[in-house]
């Protein structure tokens, strides 16, 4: 008995389509956990796509589809089996064939009428459903985030005076109601869509307001110079950032819900436009993610800078400085968790509060090191001065001795001269006196 598995990847997930038993066997053999049902029977009720399914015959109608989120393991299958990207729809597709469920070979496109890959309309419909399943998966992750942080978003919205924030509460009610109707009916008609078609503007306005509030907190942190003011602003950020992140998460969740409803609406009304609309929704979502990433990154930078400034002043502010660091770490953890839930790359480490004792020891060690260097310099300068003084003194002593010797010689000569002259005069005097005595 031959088996055939059709694989489709859109970058977010991997669809495995084929007979139910073959699909299950393939998923188990590849170790792919928690697959979700694609709900392929919906295609039979969609105008335009339904006719293509009917032409394909009973083989296509009997197919079962499972969707697996694209993780590293499931993404490896794209390379393992050599799936190739279609230039027109940007999907990676391929067909695996084998006997008795043992998939061995690869064929890029199936030739039979029962292949989803052979019909562009059906393939577009499958890609649209895959996008919906992936989006709902992301919505569930945001719901888990909101439950984890235990933030009552509606309470936060009601506390604000901005009318757009209050309107989003009503919009959320209408979107949730429309999603329930969609699940029951399997489609979104004109009446159902009319309930929420104005919702995107309100959600975008609320999201923009929350981003402005985060930017305002970042600017406020940057403007504070005194550590006491910085501590006050950091404590405010610790409380407010969590609230605005919750509002952002909720608005993003509602935007994803609108995307799911839009895909149903386009699939029902204009299936030929589904491919372009799907790619447009993906690009729009990425733009929103980039905007949120930039805003939260700015706030992270300001909080890290505040923590660094606080640690530098811990000696003079032993109470306020650790409070700033602690608040910074709390905010950073919340932002990193939020970004991870939305699929935004994140990283970074927590700052460590500098203890007063550690700072004092560092200052003491620095002072001792500076003092030691000063003493060494002084001793070096003193030694050089002493050597110079001794050298100068020795030269002076030699000069003095030389001068003294010369003076002594001169003094001796003078003395000799004086002595000689005095003796001569004495003899002369004595001679005159002796002569006078004889004559007498």
UniProtKB/TrEMBL annotation:
Protein name per the record: Uncharacterized protein
Domain of life: Bacteria
């Amino acid at each position: 008995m031959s088996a055939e598995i059709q694989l489709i990847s859109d970058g977010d997930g991997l669809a495995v389509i084929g007979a139910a038993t073959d699909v299950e066997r393939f998923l188990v053999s590849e170790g792919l956990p928690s697959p979700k049902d694609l709900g392929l029977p919906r295609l039979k009720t969609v105008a335009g796509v339904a006719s293509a399914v009917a032409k394909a015959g009973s083989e296509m109608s009997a197919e079962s589809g499972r969707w697996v989120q694209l993780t590293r393991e499931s993404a490896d299958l794209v390379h393992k089996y050599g799936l190739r990207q279609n230039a027109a729809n940007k999907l990676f597709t391929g067909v695996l064939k084998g006997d008795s469920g043992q998939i061995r070979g690869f064929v890029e496109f199936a030739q039979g009428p029962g292949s989803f890959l052979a019909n562009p309309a059906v393939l577009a419909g499958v890609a649209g459903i895959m996008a919906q399943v992936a989006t709902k998966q992301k919505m569930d992750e945001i719901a888990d985030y909101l439950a984890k942080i235990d933030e009552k978003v509606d309470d936060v919205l009601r506390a604000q005076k901005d009318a757009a924030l209050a309107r989003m509460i009503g919009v959320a009610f209408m979107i949730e109601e429309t999603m329930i109707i969609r699940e029951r009916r399997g489609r979104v008609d004109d009446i159902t869509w009319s309930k929420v078609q104005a919702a995107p503007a309100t959600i975008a306005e609320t999201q923009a307001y929350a981003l402005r509030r985060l930017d305002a907190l970042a600017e406020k942190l940057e403007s504070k110079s005194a550590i006491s003011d910085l501590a006050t602003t950091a404590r405010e950020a610790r409380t407010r950032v969590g609230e605005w992140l919750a509002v952002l998460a909720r608005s993003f969740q509602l935007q994803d819900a609108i995307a799911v409803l839009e895909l149903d609406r386009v699939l029902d009304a204009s299936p030929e436009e589904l491919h372009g609309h799907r790619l447009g929704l993906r690009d729009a979502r990425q733009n929103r993610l980039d905007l949120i990433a930039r805003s939260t990154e700015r706030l992270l930078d300001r909080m890290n800078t505040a923590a660094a400034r606080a640690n530098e002043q811990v000696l003079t502010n032993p109470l306020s400085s650790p409070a700033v660091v602690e608040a910074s770490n709390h905010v950073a953890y919340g932002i990193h968790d939020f970004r991870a839930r939305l699929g935004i790359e994140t990283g970074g480490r927590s700052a460590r509060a500098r203890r007063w004792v550690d700072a004092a020891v560092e200052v003491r060690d620095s002072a001792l090191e500076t003092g030691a260097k000063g003493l060494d310099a002084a001793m070096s300068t003193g030694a050089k001065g002493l050597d110079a003084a001794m050298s100068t003194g020795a030269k002076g002593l030699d000069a003095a001795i030389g001068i003294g010797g010369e003076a002594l010689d001169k003094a001796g000569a003078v003395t000799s001269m004086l002595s000689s002259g005095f003796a001569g005069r004495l003899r002369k005097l004595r001679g005159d006196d002796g002569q006078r005595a004889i004559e007498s």
